[in-house]
Amino acid sequence: MNPFKVHILGCGSARPTPRHCLSAQIVNYNNCLYAIDCGEGMQAQLARHHLMTGKLDRIFISHLHGDHVLGLPGLLSTMALSERTSPIHIYSPGGLESVMRPFIEFFVPAPSFDIIFHPFSTTQGATIFSNNTIEVQTVPLQHRVPCCGFIFREKQPLPHILRDMIDFYGIPNYAIKSIKEGADWVMPDGQVVPHARLTKPAEKARSYAYLSDTAYDPALAQAVEGVDLMYHEATYANDMLASASERGHSTTGQAAATARDAHARQLIIGHYSSRYDKDALEAMLLSECRAVFPNTVLANEGLTFDV
Amino acid sequence: MNPFKVHILGCGSARPTPRHCLSAQIVNYNNCLYAIDCGEGMQAQLARHHLMTGKLDRIFISHLHGDHVLGLPGLLSTMALSERTSPIHIYSPGGLESVMRPFIEFFVPAPSFDIIFHPFSTTQGATIFSNNTIEVQTVPLQHRVPCCGFIFREKQPLPHILRDMIDFYGIPNYAIKSIKEGADWVMPDGQVVPHARLTKPAEKARSYAYLSDTAYDPALAQAVEGVDLMYHEATYANDMLASASERGHSTTGQAAATARDAHARQLIIGHYSSRYDKDALEAMLLSECRAVFPNTVLANEGLTFDV
Questions:
Q1: pTM beyond 0.90, yes or no
Q2: Which of A132, B80, B178, B278 has the lowest CB atom count within 10 Å?
Q3: What pLDDT score was predicted for residue A90?
Q4: pLDDT attached to residue A198
Q5: What is the pLDDT of residue B157?
Q6: pLDDT digits (tens, 9 = 90+) for B30-39
Q7: For residue B269, what pLDDT is reported?
Q8: How many H-runs (helices) and E-runs (strands) does chain A carry?
Q9: What's the pLDDT at A1?
Q10: Catalytic residue, candidates B37, B57, B67, B189
Q11: Helices A96-107, A72-81: inter-axial angle, 10-degree rounding
Q12: Which residue in chain A is spatially nearest to B41 when comparing CA positions?
């Protein structure tokens, strides 16, 4: 299986605290890095955790609040200092380019690489990036400004060839690719060896959902049904339901309900309000989630999760 | 004496490293905070070191390179979340407001406080801020873009009243203020008691010079003659004289020569190139400085110096 990991680089909410940085993650799929959100401090966290910006080509921004965006100018500046040449692609709700480009042009004049903005709709989900091995889909969220979460879906790997059977039937190498892709094999005498006898199914394709920032929406679970790993904001504890709703955020219980109803394998919570900036209070948040969805863990800077 | 301290919050150069943040300092004079430079991460460093942004009213930006400026939007955003009401004053070379204001207005819409930009000349030194106790002067530096250092000068404190002498001459309380300010005292019989007999001189006024980023300029020492504490960039070791000159930076030996020629009490070096991001290499930088100016120390995040 290709490596498919999520690095938590920032899991605080609107303002940094002594414990937490602003929203920033890296998805590492087979040694290609994808950034999700880019709060101030992203480039410092990349350096601290020895993640190479040279392997980062695509940045996915959930919404245009500063705590998810303001790390972009510094990151692009450092990429320019590194004399990067490959383009960087930035996916976000509309409006980012018009405010960001003049700012970047002032602080990163004449960069050695192209910066390409890709605005996406926040009213309906879509596949916004796809390559041979992975695709990224948007998931509309309910926040105070247009906002989407993201699902990183591994494409279904091809089945494994059963080498013994290939040898047994004397199948030549040139035919392997088409067999992996689903073809049967026809022997010189016309006998058909079915594809299923020559292969075993690959592992199930994996998926990771990033859901932040959002108010609770019972329909969200269906949009992310069956993801393996889910990051969901839990800005507030259960007793702050009214604040969560008013601010377009979720409580612990709501985050856990979404993970439960989506049949996720594991839930990571984060985007903690600064009021919970203590071990004991974060343990309380975790406990509230586990009451609804036992396989929940707390995000923390520097943690890495296998999808 | 009023407290007069310098907090080092960032002493790396163009890009953050696992050891160092981008340029950012706080001068604390009598519990009023003044920021010098505002690299990305400033607000996180303020939180980490428990420095209250509510006590920070003035920010002094040496020049408009991103590593000295890009912490501003996030800092102002957090000030808005804190429902600050007092204005924030930003002093910098010209051009900052036109690029920064539209960006801030997007990410910090309708802040509860005024943001006031004060552009200053970078071709000749001037006093750009003054209150009852302190003043801030610019010192033109030699960099790739217009750039100034800053001298924070305590105003000469008034002399101390000699309480015994006041009592001896039966001087009423209402006269104390004018005596502190230099008046003699005239007795009812016409006898003049000279000011000097009623007071003892206050401590010498203290001063702090921040000199970054700059190429070596022998004339600089005269501009900062006699400062108590000096922060001077030492981006490069002595063996990189050509790079320093070409990039508008200083070597260790050049920083130390400026401190020596200015008769500073103590030199703090910083703005280290990321190539020196190891204990042993920073120790080498320190050693090169001490060969010229023994009372040199290495800047590091979290260190506080008394001026």
A1: yes
A2: A132
A3: 98
A4: 95
A5: 87
A6: 999 999 999 9
A7: 98
A8: 11, 18
A9: 85
A10: B67
A11: 40
A12: A41
Residues B71, B22: contact at Cβ < 8 Å?
yes
* Model pLDDT, residue A68: 98
Contact predicate B263/B230, CB 8 Å: no
Cβ-based neighbour number of residue B35 at 10 Å: 27
Q: Which residues of A touch B22 (CB under 8 A)?
A: 44, 74
Chain B closest-CA separation from residue A171 CA (Å): 54
Annotate B129-155 with three-state secondary structure.
Answer: EECCCEEEEEEECCCCCCEEEEEEEEC
Section B223-236 average pLDDT: 98
For A3-61, what is each residue's pLDDT tens digit? 999 999 999 999 999 999 999 999 999 999 999 999 999 999 999 999 999 999 999 99
A185 sits in which H/E element:
strand A185-186
- For residue B54, the chain A residues in CB contact (below 8 A) are none
Q: Residue A157: pLDDT band by 50, 70, 90 thresholds?
A: confident
Provide the pLDDT for residue B220.
Answer: 97
Residue with tokens 């230099």: B182
Three-state DSSP string of chain B? CCCEEEEEEECECCCCCCCCCCCEEEEEECCEEEEEEECCCHHHHHHHCCCCHHHEEEEECCECCHHHCCCHHHHHHHHHHCCCCCCEEEEEECCHHHHHHHHHHHHCCCCCCCEEEEEECCCCCCEEEECCCEEEEEEECCCCCCEEEEEEEECCCCCEECHHHHHHCCCCHHHHHHHHCCCCEECCCCCEECHHHHEECCCCCCEEEEECCCCCCCCHHHHCCCCCEEEEECCECHHHHHHHHHHCCCEHHHHHHHHHHCCCCEEEEECECHHHCCHHHHHHHHHHHHCCCCCEEECCCCCEEEC
Smallest CA-to-CA distance from A211 within A234, A228, A242, A243 is with: A234
Residues of chain A found within 8 Å of residue B14, distances taken between Cβ atoms: 77-78, 81
CB contact under 8 A, B14 and A65: no
